[in-house]
Structure of Universal stress protein:
Amino acid sequence: MYRHILVPTDGSDLSLAAVDQALALAKVLGSQVTALTVAEPLHFLPVTPAATATLRVDYEVHVKEDGARILGAVTEKANAAGVAIETLQITAGDAWRGIIDTAEQKGCDLIVMASHGRRGVSAFLMGSVTTKVLSHSKVPVLVYRA
């Protein structure tokens, strides 16, 4: 059935609950899991070249540390569950595109992700990474909602 599951996470409680579900499914199916965090590139108005360089370095350090923290927690959960895990942190302008591209590049046959379930105006204004993945992915998507 599903042999390689991609589980994107931002470290939120809801996405970590989806990680738990993905790991439980992977354990039952004997699947491997790739956990993914997607960071947005730094968008800013340049003030001075020196300030821009400092801001970029600080941002990149923060993003790497945050990703390592998030993926470290996922790795601990996977190890405790006895599930084979690979972790990956990428930078992408559109998180949904990064998720889909990663699933295709890694040969994943299922994406498991959380949805906050926003509707109406808030969904329109904020957008939904999950909705965009569902709309554009050729890989099946399992959505976890609490």
Summary: The CA atoms of residues 36 and 137 lie 16 Å apart. The first strand starts at residue 4 and ends at 8. Residues 49-81 form the longest helix (33 residues).
